[in-house]
Amino acid sequence: MDLLEDNNLTRIIRGNLESDKLHVCFGGGVGAFGRNFTVFYYNGATIWVDAGCGFPSHSLPGLLRTIPPKELLEAFPPDAIIFTHAHEDHVGALPYVYQHLGEKTPIYAGDFTLAIIKKRLRDCQIDLNYFEFVPLTKNSRFKVHDFEIHNFFMPHSIPQSFSVGINIARAGQKIFFSSDFKLQGSEKNYDRQAIQDFGPVDYLFCDSTGILTSGSSPDESLVVENLENIIKNWPGRIFLTTFASQIERLAEVGRLAKKYNRHLGIRGQSIVTHLEAALEARVLTESFWYGRKPDPEQKDVVWIISGCQADEGSSFQRFADEKLPPLKPEKGDLLIYSASVIPSNTDAVFNVLNKLSRIGVKIIGLADYDVRVHTSGHARVEDLKQYISWLRPKTLVPVHGDHIHFMKFHEILGENHGIDVKILDDNCIYSLESQANEIMRIPAIPQMIEEKEIHTEYSLYSYRLNLSVSGICNIVVREENKRLEQLQYIGTSSQEWLKKCTPELHKEISALLIKVCNSTENNRDRKLKQKISKINIGILGKNPYVNIIWI
Ligand SMILES: [Zn+2]
Ligand SMILES: [Zn+2]
Description:
This protein is an alpha/beta fold and 551 residues long. Helix content is 32%, strand content 23%. The protein starts with 8 loop residues before the first helix and ends with a strand.
């Protein structure tokens, strides 16, 4: 059956589901980082675990975010959504996908996550009354039809992140979905024993982000200790940039500033938004970030600056460009880079850091022999082994990573571990029995978000990419006599080269117009475009987008 030709894909998908079997399907989060979206389906009921955004590479110009494919959203409207934590790759799709939810669909999450979600929905002018928000506390349990759901708070790099245990007594199956986690941290509701008591499980869906790093993911307290030494001893101004979601670290910086009689300044709305959400969720008890704004010249200040990934227009980027008045970087300042560089942002981040370095700002946090001022929120090899031993899964499904990360589970578990490591694909429905059986591949691609539009095709981006490399060739032709009235190239090559090539281009294209237009061929414009492309490549050495205008 050719699924693409059937306009009722939802009906076909639903027809393939067996009511007495548990099914799983990913709309992202497996095979590439980001866009975490997992659907569990059993006996007519559907739950979503997270609905996050993906962050596209620069090879797709203009694309801001990706969200799960609409085919999955339509086929699996949820009876409930569980948001494991408030990172964008787990909650960011909600404002774009909420139309697929019935009114008052329950949304389960920790208080902090709910506070962030509500802020995002409000920012998008979406009525909060459409949803039913259900805050989860330590070891909450609730039922959604046959799904009996437990949550287990875990340390991560944002408050109130949790793993999800799913028990389906009727199907005789237990599932554990780790979400993002590490084992060392100060999450106050972390209960190792409760996790061990939930095991053994049939399936463990396990975070693989930290699997390429040996040892254990260090506790945040180590970072705080190092920050204290720096803040205590540095004689001049201190600037610190980190992820806005690192509430624990931000609060510690606030505490240390006070302890060492420094003023605290914050630049960047995303940090204030996260701190306010933490206050609303009672993760923080005092609003240490308000008060008199420090004088920009003052030496006894710690400035927290948002935008550690050097996003366009971020405070961090503007600071380095001296466009964050009245703050200006100066020789003798210290910048604590309290973050990791996400690989796709390496150029942008180093560009900003080099600008600061040239001004004379000392930078800490990039060299591996620098004192540690950041720690990952993800479990590393030893943590993963321990976590797996607590849960004793029959099958382990790696998530939150790409194929290279996933394959490493075979290695870290060693031989004869008795655990079946199963790598699953996105846009594919599996029934989870003693094995994960693929029952259907869905022809779907992620939806693509631009400022005010959602695209469902990649072709626009390949056009754009080509435009950025080769420009446009505008050809104005008089319909009456097929005469070439105007030949114009925009962004294709230098004026000198164009000047040199234009007589020949004019001659060849004019001759072609007469030839093609006098023939009886169909698809006149398509044929012309193809042939003009050949002429352009032959003479100019470039293949600009050909735009024919008939007058
Ligand atoms: Zn994540
Ligand atoms: Zn996360």
